[in-house]
Amino acid sequence: MSATIQGKIKEVTATSNPIIKDIKALALKKNRDREGLFLAEGLKLATDAMEAGWRLRTLIHGKKALEDNNLRDKVQALAIQARALGGDVLIVSDKILTSITRRDNAQMVVSVLEQRFTTPTDIKPVANDCWLALDRVRDPGNLGTIIRTADCLGAKGVILVGETTDPFALEAVRATMGSLFHVPLVRMSEEAFVGFAEKWREDFKGHVTGTHLKGAIDHRSIDYTNSPQLLLMGNEQQGLTDDLASACDRLALISMAGQADSLNLAVATGIMLFEARRHAL
Ligand code: SAM
Fold first, then answer.
1. Mind telling me which Gene3D superfamilies this protein's record contains (predicted)?
2. How far is Cα 58 from Cα 37, in angstroms, rounded to an integer?
3. pTM for this entry
4. 92-106: b (≥16 Cβ within 10 Å) or e
5. Residue 241: CB within 6 Å of ligand 1?
6. I need a surface site. Which of 50, 120, 149, 245 has the fewest CB within 10 A?
7. What is the ipTM of this complex?
């Protein structure tokens, strides 16, 4: 085991500084993918990430935080923790913080963290464990909200099926409110998911429930307590593909009144998860 080398501390004043340029580049998915890094805003997310064992590369904080009586102690304690874990600390101006997060009134703290995905073979459900799968989720706000809801309701993890929005996009990370650090994320192609659903039934003796506007079963009438549960939600615009719907052993409908065609994806997920986890709450 090698000892951790304490991170460096540095003050940066120019937005043109190459370190700041690299950090700002993480606004783009291609750069996040290449570097395996992402940005998280705020003191809470930096604290949650480190406490949950996620690797923090750089903690950036505003110089002004050191002049604020309410913030100074917290930010300094966070900086000490980050450096002890090997992360660097950058002290920057408000202008630089705004340019990194691309919004006015930026948070005083931003962290650069290493991305983390769980591999499909690490999914080993027991009893009535519940996992959630999302078909081609497009909206980062929906994805972040769903990850937060999965955390709140005790789902074991979220499977991203097909081409999805990036869970490490700033907007998605924001919407998770820190749940990102507690909910394992797995990626799979549609084809791989069809095989995984088969394995779920055969190896884990579980059930796969798709949610569908043409579902024949009322979502409240299903027994979610006697086996591992895999819940599959459809894409915001198109719903589930035919192949994914066929991979499910049942299709559930959430009853609706009124004139709307469907529920928002994140709302439908909350309703399904609440029902599937009702016995445990
Ligand atoms: N036009 C899409 C369609 O035809 O499926 C609407 C998709 S809806 C906005 C997004 C997803 O939320 C659906 O694929 C389904 O998984 C879930 N959903 C929304 N309302 C639902 C309902 N009433 N019953 C079951 N699932 C629902």
1. 3.30.1330.30, 3.40.1280.10
2. 10
3. 0.95
4. bbeebbbbbbeeeeb
5. no
6. 120
7. 0.99
